[in-house]
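Give me the fold.
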Amino acid sequence: MNISVESLGFSYANGKQVFKSLTFQITQGRILSVLGPNGAGKTTLLACIARLYLPSAGDILFDGKSYRHMQQREIA
């Protein structure tokens, strides 16, 4: 499965912006690591990819299909 993150942005309800315009691809058979200091948004990013949080901007594609058109079960 290939995952594409396109212009992703996320802000908490209190207005704190965690990231904006984040774009990258994870292709099958490749390894990606996410590094950063505590509180930088690593876990929030993974929660967005798993659709536990809904991003405020951008899209996430699973094999070219937007997560917005998928059931949670398909994403899991």
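The first strand starts at residue 3 and ends at 11.
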